Amino acid sequence: AAEAAKVRHFKWDVEYVFWSPDCQENVVMGINGQFPGPKIRATVGDTVVVELTNKLHTEGVVIHWHGIRQLGTPWADGTASISQCAINPGETFYYRFKLDKAGTYFYHGHYGMQRSAGLHGSLIVDVGEGEKEPFHYDGELNLLLSDWWHESVHHQEVGLSSNPMRWIGEPQSLLMNGRGQYNCSIAGGAHYSSNSTKCSLGGGEQCAPKILHVLPNKIYRLRIASTTALASLNLAIGNHKMVVVEADGNYVQPFAVDDLDIYSGESYSVLVTTNQNPRNNYWVSVGVRGREPKTPQGLTLLNYKPNSASKLPTSPPPVTPLWNNYTHSKSFTTSILALMGSPKPPTTFHRRITLLNTQNKINGGYTKWAINNVSLSLPSTPYLGSIKYGLKNAFSTVNPPEGFPNDYDVMKPPVNPNTTTGNGVYTLTLNSTVDVILQNANALSENVSEIHPWHLHGHDFWVLGYGDGKFDPKRDEKKFNLKNPPLRNTAVIFPYGWTALRFVADNPGVWAFHCHIEPHLHMGMGVVFAQGVQHVNNIPKQALACGLTGN
Ligand SMILES: O=C1O[C@H]([C@@H](O)CO)C(O)=C1O
């Protein structure tokens, strides 16, 4: 702790580049000519300054620092229409914020579907000098997971807002550190009972896998984050156990698994001991869960040095658990508990907001997602500025609903599928304790209920519990875990289930809370929380230079 906190300065240009993430060339949103964007590595307490220049020709841009709470700098949260105006082509915006907590994070675009276009990268925060992590490791590995489509996000966005909607479908490939193989497999061949051909990659290609090099008989900390647009993933390493020690920048009670589910917006650290036969290399695989998979597994190798990295493992890649084996998913998710000594939740709450997640129709056929029957459509003036300066007519002053009708049957498609759009905010009392019950339901089609990972900006929340069917306060509240619930910034709702969260609204600003599936947010699946905005000072002019605050 003796070392003074540093200011870490980065100069980034965002621009489209030709890139072949999965061996097929596309146009990808890159940073400084790179995809994924550069990795940021810094120490807790450091101030990060990113001087971001928009080199796109015709689009605005913003970047969200996922998992960083932005204490005192809500204008740097990087959410278009919420915390700031999009940065125009040719303009430079200075993100300046403090890293409040060590952990595994990432950053990504938060305007339209720019995250899906490739605007993302890793953000790793180390503990302070002289501080200790509650576990030991000899080396570190990093995996940023994403999914990839060959159709541009512009094409996807038009499809989503057409009548009838054209759904984006399943990804063409899964990427690990921005690398995947579309038309071939690095395992390949009959030996691996896969009908795809073996890739002929020299290693220098943009789509060549990033090999994880390790030494035998060491402990590695593998940092994993998922910035997928859609896919829920399962990751496994052939023959190796993984001990989960961190989730979303918070330490958890260590537990060992053979495979791990990771939903979009989540991050984990796992410890891997390289105690297997040192003469072999081992597969690292990721596969799709929660949706009928149409995408081949993503693969890379755990290379035990000094073996050649081109030596293929003796056994085939780990098989991803069945996509709809939710028992398996729930067993993993509910095993995540806070490490002893972690901050505990308040034992009572001031306000409970129940959020019903539904798929709906609007204006005679367009498809939307709605929360308590309101589908979020963001205003042209960012909330932070319009609330701070008390501007009228910037957004709807109608308070969004605190819950949904008692007789709503979450097991059936909506009786009346019609919804409306809205942009009202939930105004939270500063420093109050807020419970959110996320309630899943049946989608538009019979017997369909999807997974939705919900991400909260500006805070971590405690996950107090998960359950099936409709949340019943009398019955279910008693089962809340107030002893060691995990602190997280993203939590999933399972099909037809509910998830209970608690957080303290102690961070003045305006914060998005939304499904982290990119097309779902695009279709309105989110809400906005505002708290203590009068205490927010020093909003840079540039963050306000649009809409009503621009005048
Ligand atoms: O939002 C979605 O739309 C499709 C489907 O419901 C209609 O095509 C799907 O799988 C989603 O997640």
TrEMBL record:
Cofactor(s) needed for function: Cu cation
Entry's EC annotation: 1.10.3.3
PROSITE patterns for this protein: MULTICOPPER_OXIDASE1, MULTICOPPER_OXIDASE2
CDD domains associated with the record: CuRO_1_AAO, CuRO_3_AAO
EC class of the enzyme, as a word: oxidoreductase
Domain Plastocyanin-like, chain residue ranges per copy: 14-126, 142-306, 412-532
Keyword Transferase: no
Annotated transmembrane regions: none
Gene Ontology terms, MF aspect: copper ion binding; L-ascorbate oxidase activity
Catalysed reaction, written as an equation: 4 L-ascorbate + O2 = 4 monodehydro-L-ascorbate radical + 2 H2O
Any one Pfam family match given in the protein's UniProt record, by short name: Cu-oxidase_2
Assembly and binders: Dimer.
Function field: May be involved in a redox system involving ascorbic acid.
Protein name as annotated: L-ascorbate oxidase
Organism: Fragaria ananassa (Strawberry)
